[in-house]
UniProtKB/TrEMBL annotation:
Keywords: Carbohydrate metabolism, Hydrolase. One of its GO terms (biological process) is N-acetylglucosamine catabolic process. GO terms for molecular function: glucosamine-6-phosphate deaminase activity; identical protein binding. Belongs to the glucosamine/galactosamine-6-phosphate isomerase family. NagB subfamily. It holds the Pfam family Glucosamine_iso. The gene is nagB. This is Glucosamine-6-phosphate deaminase. It comes from Mobilisporobacter senegalensis. The active site is at residues 67, 136, 138, 143. CDD domains: GlcN6P_deaminase. Residues 10-228 form the Glucosamine/galactosamine-6-phosphate isomerase domain.
Length: 241
């Protein structure tokens, strides 16, 4: 793994945006795996800025997102569809048909998982997969457990994840307890993985991910087995490495 230790969130966002930009400039028809959460927001802002300056073109780029809450439709303010539109897609020239997220409103869970697996297969290789890191080591919504789940699945979110993500919901809003997520094998099949981590509150888990044993109890630790992982983390997040 290659680790870039940077000073702060701003620098993390810029460095990661540079890595993503390089991929898009060198391969305009690339497939990029995208993530949600607070961490990548600064990256999307930076990419939008460069797009507006005319330095980036997303017209041929294809995207695949990691996950979506079950039960939220794309107009729901807490859905990841809404997040991606608001923080990225609406500001750049992605073609809608080139963007992909799980359908949180699907009635048939198995059919939706099969559909999303097929979307991933049809895209061919993911050239670069962007990942954030949950406080319990989750990537996408692959929560800690006894085993890794390979393909897209519907997961019961852990109490700590529900608690962590509740900060983004307004009072009285029902927080989803289930989500669809891309599986670990699909993530690991990406050619290159870019993990971004910010803040002291992630220092313990980042240390476990990088230096601890590889175990499904810390899902992101499996990244140690991938041959092209770049981690961009700020001082706070690196403080226990
Ligand atoms: C959510 C997402 C993850 C994300 C994680 C961390 O659970 N499903 O993909 O990495 O939150 O979010 P944050 O960056 O806000 O800490």
């Amino acid at each position: 793994m290659k680790l870039y230790q940077v000073n702060d969130y701003q620098e993390m966002s810029r460095k990661a945006a540079n890595i993503i930009s390089a991929k898009i400039i060198l391969k305009p028809q690339c497939v990029i795996g995208l993530a949600t959460g607070s961490t990548p927001i600064g990256i999307y802002k930076q990419l939008i800025e460069w797009y507006k300056k005319g330095d980036l073109d997303f017209s041929e780029v294809k995207s695949i997102n990691l996950d979506e809450y079950k039960g939220l439709d794309e107009n729901h303010k807490q859905s990841y569809h809404y997040f991606m539109n608001k923080n990225f897609f609406y500001h750049v020239n992605f073609k809608k048909e080139n963007t992909n997220l799980p359908n949180g409103m699907a009635d048939n869970i198995d059919a939706e998982c099969d559909r999303y697996n097929q979307v991933i297969t049809n895209l061919g290789e993911i050239d670069l997969q962007l990942l954030g890191l949950g406080h319990n080591g989750h990537i996408g919504f692959n929560e800690p457990g006894e085993e890794y789940k390979n393909g897209t699945h519907c997961v019961a979110l852990s109490e700590s994840t529900i608690e962590a993500n509740s900060r983004l919901f307004e009072e009285g809003e029902v927080i989803p307890k289930y989500a669809f997520t891309m599986g670990i094998r699909s993530i690991l099949k990406a050619k290159k993985i870019l993990l971004v981590v910010s803040g002291k509150d992630k220092a313990d888990i980042l240390n476990q991910v990088l230096n601890g044993p590889v175990t499904p109890k810390v899902p992101a630790s499996i990244l140690q087995f991938h041959n092209d992982v770049t981690v961009v983390a700020d001082k706070g997040a690196c403080s226990k490495i």
